[in-house]
């Protein structure tokens, strides 16, 4: 169900994505189409348009899943500062029709503490820079609070 591709994106590419993501205006993250603030989430986001990265993720998804995927949402660049987190949630709901979620670890794990991607009943996902995690959007997961430093990640969702 959960597929982890450890360090599949080179470190220098991760650093370039962080640099690119930080050039976009960051907004407080919320939930739903209207980005409504939620007590369950504290982070800042920006939506980025990187055709090469979208293509890379798309190829990885289609090489490993047979789902009837019809479209992908925009790439969401997330910045988790000290104290930021994302509480237990699932990415799919009756309105968004998400089937697959992709999370990419952009930060060097030595640059922050906390911020683990955690699924119910599974050990936290290793925080190796450049790791891509693909999972069904209906799985509950969370990001633990960042204790020090800054965590950068990229997420994308596929509809089916």
What secondary-structure arrangement, pairings included, does this model have?
Layout (H helix, E strand, L loop, with lengths): L2 E3 L5 H13 L3 E2 L12 E2 L1 E5 L2 H14 L6 E2 L2 E6 L4 E5 L8 E8 L6 E3 L2 E3 L12 E5 L4 E3 L2 E4 L1 E9 L1
Antiparallel strand pairs: 1-11, 2-4, 3-7, 4-6, 5-14, 6-14, 7-12, 8-11, 8-14, 9-13, 10-12
Description:
The chain has 160 residues and is an alpha+beta fold. It has a single domain (3-26, 41-149), classed as q2cbj1_9rhob like domain (Jelly Rolls). It is 17% helix and 38% strand. The chain contains two helices and 14 strands. It has helices spanning 11-23, 51-64; strands at residues 3-5, 27-28, 41-42, 44-48, 71-72, 75-80, 85-89, 98-105, 112-114, 117-119, 132-136, 141-143, 146-149, 151-159. The strands form three sheets. Strands 1, 2, 4, 5, 6, 8, 11 and 14 form an eight-stranded antiparallel beta sheet that branches. It has a four-stranded antiparallel beta sheet with strand order 3-7-12-10, with no helix packed on it. The radius of gyration is 14 Å and the shape is globular. The two termini are 16 Å apart. The model has no long low-confidence stretch (mean pLDDT 91).
């Amino acid at each position: 169900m959960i597929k982890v591709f450890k360090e599949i994106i080179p470190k220098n590419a991760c650093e370039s994505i962080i640099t690119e993501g930080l050039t976009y205006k960051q907004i407080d993250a919320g939930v739903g189409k209207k980005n409504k603030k939620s007590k369950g989430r504290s982070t800042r986001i920006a939506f980025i348009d990187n055709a090469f990265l979208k293509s890379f993720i798309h190829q990885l998804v289609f090489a490993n899943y047979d789902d009837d995927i019809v479209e992908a949402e925009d790439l969401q660049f997330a910045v988790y500062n000290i104290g930021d987190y994302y509480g237990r949630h699932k990415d799919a709901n009756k309105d968004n029709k998400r089937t697959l979620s992709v999370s990419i670890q952009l930060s060097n794990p030595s640059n922050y503490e906390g911020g683990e991607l955690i699924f119910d009943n599974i050990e936290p996902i290793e925080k190796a820079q450049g790791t891509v995690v693909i999972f069904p959007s209906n799985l509950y997961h969370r990001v633990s609070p960042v204790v020090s430093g800054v965590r950068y990640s990229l997420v994308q969702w596929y509809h089916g």
